[in-house]
Amino acid sequence: MAIMSPCGGLLTYRTSRMIRIDVWQLGLAFRLIQAAIVGFVAFDIFQRHGWAYSEVPAGRVNAYGESTAEFVAIGTTSPAYCSSADHDYVFSSLWSYIQPGCRKLDVAEIYNKNKDSVSFTTSIIESVEYAWPCAGTEAPFKRAQCAEIGAPVVPTGLQCKCVDTNVYYVKGVEAITVAFEHGYTTTPALNLEGDSAVKAAGEAALDTELSFPNGTKRTYVAGETIRLTLAELVSISGENLDATNPLVAADARGTDNKPRYRTTGMSLTVDLKYSNL
């Protein structure tokens, strides 16, 4: 006979039932699975260093260009890319590169330093405009100047003008040295910092290792400025300035000509990874 609670099911409760399985094969499999789970969790924690406090350091870079003896020497020669038929490309009427010649420029004219980057000029389109009153006394002289450079005279109201456009490469830009120093800081929780250009007493050396696509590694010890020629820096990407850029449209004249990276330029990102393991 069942005894009913006066409060219905409000004062009832359940107890769990335990079953012991006495089959050694199942017990062994159960313990192996437990051990595998614990081992995987431990391996994952140590592999990702999840046991340690970590943070991404704030980095800084100081990059600039420097002249080299090779760059100076190239200034008296005629490199193969100067006025070369292999460097012949027309994108549009405004972007026409017909066998660009070369000019020697100073290093200060070639590179531009920004906060976290440095850029080098490889090709230049230079336009010079001559303008004068069409009825002015100097008009014959100006028209003769335009004829001499092969630029047509274009009248715009009372003013006449002609534009002289020259396209050329910067001679020897690949031989310029790209120099840079870098460093990092962390929050007070770690209170760590380092600088590749300064080796402070009592601090660990902040050495820098560069890796090239062919497997070559180059190490710069702390206190040594990192220096590579522009050609070496570009080679890290697996390309060179005179390689064909396949990502640009074909020649506007209907040919299959493609421009070179020396013409279009390229953007390179150098990743700096710091390790405190």
**Structural category:** alpha+beta
Low-pLDDT regions: none
The proportion of residues forming helix, as a percent range, comes to: 10-25%
The rough form would be described as elongated
Query: Could you give the order of the helices and strands?
Result: HEHEEEHEEEHEEEEEEEHH
Task: Describe the overall structure.
- This protein has 277 residues and is an alpha+beta fold.
- Among the domains are: 64-173, no CATH class; 176-244, no CATH class.
- Helices cover 20% and strands 27% of the residues.
- It is built from six helices and 14 strands.
- It has helices at 24-47, 69-74, 107-110, 139-149, 230-235, 261-264; strands spanning 58-66, 88-90, 96-98, 101-103, 111-113, 118-120, 123-133, 154-156, 159-170, 177-185, 193-195, 208-211, 217-220, 226-229.
- Strands 1, 10, 11 and 14 form a four-stranded antiparallel beta sheet that branches. Strands 4, 7, 8 and 9 form a four-stranded mixed beta sheet that branches. It has a two-stranded antiparallel ribbon with strand order 2-3.
- The longest helix is centred in the first third of the chain and has 24 residues, at 24-47.
- It is elongated.
- The N and C termini lie far apart (72 Å).
